[in-house]
Specification:
single chain; mainly alpha; 2 domains; 16 helices
């Protein structure tokens, strides 16, 4: 029995190390690869069971594909499987981003590196724009959600704390749902519960590993929806409040998370290395992924109840609408750091057309941007 259990753990480690190394193309592509391996090839889960887990990941914050790996590991080999599967899926991306981070810090001022980043930044922004467009079509599915999304964008643009925008929008939509359904008692309870919990604005503090760890734990604990919403929280904390990063460095971090396999959340590895070398990379990575393991572990019994609750569903609808709105605001705010001349504007337009019209794989798009950036920079066309 012990030998069979150890064999399951080893099999989970091999599979998710392989998937983590080859998982290009974003969460949807990652999950499609898992479905092929888990359902079609190995028959560890039925398709219905796989879909149940997929639905569960959409009800909790964190990176969906990583949480799918954690769910599968837990089903296959219990608590040890949960840790092995999740860690194995994250590890390849962590090591690759760590190597890129070292090269960035060591050679970041070289013309070749400048050319790479010159081409990648506008394309990454186009990729985020495409994500905003497609997510908006799903998230803004009613007139109420369109109106609340616009209000959330205005609030974000005016500098209102992003947590207040997200949770405030969620509670507002849930409140209206309760009022329209005639449940005034539930509406009053929602309003009372939320009012004292609106987060206060952050206070700038000196850099340290422990404060950085807590910031990444916070981000990993409240980030619903697309991984690109990561931009919103990273910009709010590391640029606006703490001034630990520049906008250019933030775009570089998202670019690295995009061009490497695995979850976009490994942008945290890059940021941690920039701020404090190898210890910073480890601390940042642990901080942003730790909540995913916790939420998967505790959410199982709650998922069916949440799915059946109209109020919880309305709250999540509101959070998703606000998420898309905040992503749109940050895209506009970062445009100045990405579109610095006619060449970068042209790269961004070409990338947007290829994404929206032809659905080109983002990995090939970023690799093309690297080549284009080097060529443009080397020929002096960008001058």
């Amino acid at each position: 029995m012990k030998s069979e259990y150890s064999g399951r753990l080893a099999e989970l480690a091999r599979l998710f190390l392989k998937l983590g190394t080859a998982a290009f193309g974003g969460p949807a592509a990652h999950i499609a690869m898992m479905e092929d391996e888990i359902v079609n090839r190995r028959h560890w889960l039925s398709r219905d069971e796989f879909l149940d887990f997929l639905g569960a990941t959409n009800l909790i914050p964190g990176p969906n594909s990583t949480e799918m790996a954690i769910h599968i590991g837990h089903r296959r080999a219990g608590w040890a499987g949960l840790i092995v599967a999740g860690s194995s899926f994250i590890l390849p991306a962590f090591l690759i981003v760590l190597a890129i981070s070292w090269a960035y810090v060591r050679f970041g001022s070289m013309p070749e590196t400048a050319g790479i980043l010159y081409g990648v930044k506008p394309v990454v922004l186009a990729i985020v724009l495409q994500a905003v467009w497609r997510l908006a079509r799903s998230a803004l599915k009613s007139r109420l959600l369109v109106i609340t999304g616009v209000a959330a964008a205005l609030a974000g643009g005016l500098g209102v704390n992003e947590l207040a925008v997200l949770f405030g929008t969620g509670v507002f939509v849930a409140l209206l749902k309760s009022i329209f359904s005639g449940n005034l008692a539930k509406a009053a309870a929602l309003a009372h519960a939320f009012w004292p919990q609106i987060p206060a604005a952050g206070i700038a503090i000196s850099f340290g590993l422990w404060p950085m760890f807590l910031i990444f734990v916070k981000i990993g604990s409240i980030l619903f929806g697309s991984g690109y919403l990561l931009l919103v929280f990273l910009r709010a904390d590391f640029i606006d409040r703490l001034h630990w990063l520049t906008e250019g460095q933030l775009l570089d971090a998202i670019a690295v998370g995009q061009v490497t396999p695995g979850p976009v959340f490994t942008a945290a590895t890059f940021i941690g290395f920039l701020l404090s070398g190898f210890p910073g990379a480890v601390v940042a990575t642990a901080g942003i992924f730790l909540p995913a393991f916790f939420f998967v572990a505790v959410s199982g019994p709650l998922v069916p109840r949440l799915r059946r609750s109209p109020t919880a569903g309305a709250f999540l609808d509101g959070v998703n609408a606000a998420s898309v709105a905040l992503m749109a605001v940050v895209t506009v705010q970062l445009a100045g750091a990405a579109f610095v001349d006619y060449a970068t504007i042209g790269l961004g337009i070409i990338a947007a057309v290829l994404l929206l019209r032809y659905n080109l794989n983002t990995v090939w798009l970023v690799l093309g941007a690297i080549v284009a950036g080097i060529v443009i920079h080397a020929t002096g066309f960008s001058q």
